[in-house]
Amino acid sequence: MSTPIKFKHVDPRVIKVPEVRVTSIWTEEEYAEFQGTIETGGIENPLKCLQDGDTLWLVDGLNRLNEAMRLGIKKVPVAYQEGLYVEALLKNLYLNRMRGRTPASDEIKLIQHLMNDHHLTVTEIARKTGMKAQRIEQRLQIGSASPYVLMALEGEQIGVGIAYQLSRLPSLEGQNALLSGLLSAVPPPTTEEVEDIVDGSIKIIQERSQPPREPNPVIPVRTLRCHLCGQEYEPGDLRGINVCATCHGLSRDFIQRRLKDQDERISPRDALAQRIARGDISEAEMDDLKRRLE
Predict the structure, then answer these.
(1) Phi and psi of 190, rounded to 5°?
(2) φ and ψ at residue 107, rounded to 5 degrees
């Protein structure tokens, strides 16, 4: 349960500013107008603070505090609650987010600070600030991006959406290369276009990282040599018959003579090819035939 809000006037010099916080964005024209209002009417809108023990931590109103210090104002109005320092950080994130004009880089740093130094989870930050967990996770993802991407985001050269897409690339060099192309592109690409480029790059990287597919093993075809012609055939192409030794010898001699006659009627080159295919030529014979055919 939150503590009641109290009011008092304090010396602006006693107000402590958290090192990590979110500050609203002003244009030069807006800030000049703001300064004129303070110089003319003073500070009427109270600064929001949180008091942790004896320390008054600023939650909202850094620009007013700076102007009070610049102008030497002795007392400023403060609306404060009692609580812990981390609550001041959470309130700062919540109040500035509601304005809608805050640097995304400030938001990223503060979320990282809350998680790393104060050990808050994404769920806890979402519950205490009203931010969606998806937005917090997106900011954390952007925080892991290349320093050049973060600089471009802070300088408002790219938007949060494009910074998020760039941060998805696993290589910082890849992020920088794509960022360079985006900054020189005319007209600037949309977030959707950058998302398509990043998706395509990630797909290629994943394909390259996968081990090559092993080829399907080729099962050698088993062959048997015909006892009559001497050529190799698959078992299904052979025919088994009962033949006596005499007929087998006569048949083999007849077939071999026919093959010899065929060899004599074809060119030496074709004959060589056939013999090599049959596997009935020695290495010495092959060398000799090659020499003769040259």
Answers:
(1) -80, 165
(2) -60, -45
**Which of the residue ranges 6-10, 179-183, 235-239 has the most confident prediction, judged by mean pLDDT?**
6-10
Q: What does the pLDDT read at residue 24?
A: 83
Q: What 3-state class would DSSP assign to 200?
A: helix
208: CB partners within 8 A, 6+ apart = none
What ranges do the domains of the chain cover? Answer: 1-102, 227-293
Adjacency order of strands within the sheet including 6-10 = 6-10, 76-82, 47-52, 55-60, 15-16
How far apart are alpha carbons 59 and 9 in whole angstroms?
16
Contact present, 91 and 125 (Cβ < 8 Å): no
Asked if residue 165 lies in contact with residue 198, where contact means CB atoms within 8 angstroms, the answer is: yes
- 34 or 270: whose pLDDT is higher? 34
Q: Which of 123, 125, 135 is nearest to 87 (CA)?
A: 125
22 and 95 Cβ atoms separated by less than 8 Å: no
49: Cβ–Cβ under 8 A, 6 or more apart, which residues? 15, 56, 57, 58, 59, 78, 79, 80, 88
Phi, psi of 65 (to 5 degrees): -65, -45
Q: What is the pLDDT of residues 262-279, one digit of tens each?
A: 655 555 444 434 443 344
244-257 burial by CB neighbour count: b if 16+ within 10 A, else e?
eeeeeeeeeeeeee
pTM of the model: 0.65
Average pLDDT, the chain: 82
Q: From 9, 71, 8, select the one nearest 34 (Cα to Cα).
A: 71
Architecture of the domain spanning 1-102: Alpha-Beta Complex (3.90)
- Integer CA distances (angstroms), 203 to 91, 162, 174, 182, 193, in order: 41, 19, 14, 20, 16
